[in-house]
Amino acid sequence: MKEASINKHLSGMPKNTIYKSLAILCLALILDSCGVPKVAQRKENTSVPSGYNGGSKDTLNSGKLKWREFFGDPYLSALIDSALKNNQELNITLQEISVARNEIRIRKGEYLPFVGLRGGAGFEKVGRYTNIGTLEANTPIINGKETPDPLPDYQLTAYASWEIDIWHKLRNARKSAVARYLSTVEGKNFMITNLISEVARSYYELLALDNQLDIVNSNIKIQGDALDIVKLQKESARVTELAVRRFEAQVLHTKSLQYNIQQRIIVTENRINFLLGRFPAPVPRNDQAFNDLTPKVVRAGLPSQLLANRPDIRQAEQDLAAAKLDVKVARARFYPSLGISAVIGYQAFNPSYLVKLPQSLLYSMLGDITGPLINRNAIKGLYYGANARQLQSVFNYERTILNAYIQVANQLSNISNLEKEYNLQSQQVDALMLSTSISTDLFRSARADYMEVLLTQRDALEARFDLVETKIQRLNAVVNMYQALGGGGN
User: Fold this and answer.
1) Is the dihedral of CA 320, 324, 325, 327 positive or negative?
2) How far apart are CA 400 and CA 71, in angstroms?
3) What is residue 64's DSSP assignment?
4) Is the dihedral of CA 235, 236, 241, 244 positive or negative?
5) Closest of 375, 368, 339 to residue 32, by C-alpha
6) Is the C or the N end of the chain the one with fewer CB within 10 Å?
7) Helices assigned H by DSSP within 377-449
8) Beta partners for 346?
9) What is the dihedral of CA 7, 13, 16, 19, to 10 degrees?
10) How many C-beta atoms lie closer than 10 Å to residue 194's C-beta?
C-alpha cells in the first residue's frame, strides 16, 4: 500500500517538478563532492651527489655487466645457474608476480562493461484484491485461451551494466595494478641480484677454507719436522724434555685446527646447497684456484646511474607511482558515479510464445547517478589512508636511494683499504716464512732457542691465516660492490 501511494503521488506530480527535483539532487551531489578533505603533499627528492667521496666522474659502470661476464669461474657460473632455476624463495617471488598480473586483469575487467545471459522459469500467484490481481481478473483470455492460474513466467535475456569512468577512478585503479605488477618484477630482479651475490660470496669462502686447510696441513709437516729435530737434540742432551713437550703441544694444536675448518667447509657447502634448493651434496670446485684469484677492478660510474641500475630503487619508484594513483582513486570516491544498465530478451507465460515478436520482446535501459551525501567517514578513512601510504612510499623511495649511495661509497672505501692491508700482510707473510726457515736452521746449529722457533712458526701460521681472511674480504668487497651497483638484476 505504501508503494502504491508513492506511485500515485509521483504520477500526480507535474513532469517539470520531477525533473527539477532530480536536477537539484544531482547538483547537491556534485556540490557535496567538491568538499574533498585537504591532505599533506610531499614531492620526492631524487637528487644525488655528482660523485662518490669526491672521486672521479667516470661513466663506466660495472653494474651493467651481465653476471656471466663478471664471474668468469665456470664452477661458480654453474652454481648460479642452478640457484636461479631451483631457489625456493625466488620461485615464491615468481608466483607473487603471477598474482600481481592477475590483479591487472581484475582491474581491467572492472573498467569494461559487464555483459551476461540469463534464463529463468517460475510462477507467481498474487492476491485477487491487489492491483496486479485485479488486472489479471479483467483480462482472463489471450488468443481465445484462458490465462493459467498461477501464471508461469519464462524468460531469456541478455543484460549489461557499465560504470562510466568519469573521474578515471577505474582507469587509475588499473594503472595502479600495473605499477604494482612492475614493482613485483623489480622485486624479483632485486632478489636475483642478492641471490647471485650470496652464492658468489659462499663459493669464495669455500675456496678460502680449502686454502686454509692446505696451510694447516703444510704447517703440520713443518712443525712435525721441527719436533723430530727437537727429539734428536734431547737425545744428545742439547735440549730438555720441556722443549719436546712444547713442540708436541704445538703440533697437536695445529692438527686440531683441521676439524674446525672441515666443519666450516661442510656448513658453507650446505649453505650453497640451500641456495640451490637441493639437499646436501658435494660442491664441485677447483680448490687450488684460490691462490690465482685476483679481485676484479670495479667501475662505480656515476651516482645518478643507480636510479636506473638498482632494482630496489626501481621497485620503490613503481610502489610510489602506484601509491599516487591509489590517492586519485580514493579521491574519486567523493564524486558522483554514473552507471548504465540495460536488459533485452524474451518473456512470456508460455514457452511457445517466446518466439512471437514483438509481443514477447522485453527491453529496458536505465542510467543512474549516485554519490555520497551523508556520513562519508569510510570514504575519508580510505582517502587519508591512501595518502599516508603515499607519504610512506615517498620516504621509502628516498631512503632506498640514500642507502644505495652509501653502500657504494662504503664499498669503494673498503676495496681501497683492503688492497693496502693485503699488500702489507703479504710482505709480513714473506718475512715470517723466511724467519721460520732461518730460526729452524739456527736451532739446528744451537744458535737459537727453541722458543724462537715456536713463536716464529706460530706467528707465520697466524699471518698466513690473516692473509687468507683479508683476501676473502677483498673478493667479497668486489661482490658487494657489484651487488650495490645493481649488477645481475638488469
Assistant:
1) positive
2) 26
3) G
4) negative
5) 375
6) N
7) 377-444
8) 156, 361
9) -30
10) 17
The answer to whether the peptide bond before residue 351 is cis (omega within 30 degrees of 0) is no
Question: Which stretches in the chain have pLDDT values below 50?
Answer: 1-13, 18, 29, 31, 33
Tens digit of each residue's pLDDT (9 = 90 or more) over 28-52: 545 454 567 777 677 888 888 888 8
Amino acid symbol at 447? R
From 202, 213, 223, select the one nearest 259 (Cα to Cα). 213
* Alpha-helical regions (H) of 71-168: 74-86, 88-111, 131-138
| Residue 368 C-alpha from the chain's centroid | 42
Per-residue pLDDT tens over the stretch 201-255: 999 999 999 999 999 999 999 889 888 888 888 888 788 889 899 989 999 999 9
At 122, which amino acid appears? Answer: G
Nearest CA to 429 out of 291, 294, 297 is that of 291
In sequence order, the β-bridge partners of residue 188 are none
Q: What is the pLDDT of residue 8?
A: 43
Q: What are 255's three cell numbers?
A: 692438527
pLDDT digits (tens, 9 = 90+) for 81-108: 999 999 999 999 999 999 999 999 988 8
One-letter amino acid of 191? M
Write the single-letter amino acid at 330: A
| 25 in Cβ contact with 385 (< 8 Å) | no
Read off the C-alpha cell for 387: 595518502
The C-alpha angle with vertex 272 and arms to 271 and 278, in degrees rounded to 5, equals 95
Among 376, 399, 333, which residue's Cα sits nearest to residue 44? 399
Q: Dihedral, CA atoms, 194, 200, 202, 205, nearest 10 degrees?
A: -140
Q: Please give the model's pTM, rounded to 2 decimal places.
A: 0.84
What is the C-alpha to C-alpha distance for residues 369 and 235, in angstroms, rounded to an integer? 111
For 66, 303, 306, 392, 473, the CA distances from 405, given in Å and listed in that order, are: 21, 7, 8, 20, 21
Q: What is the pLDDT of residue 451?
A: 87
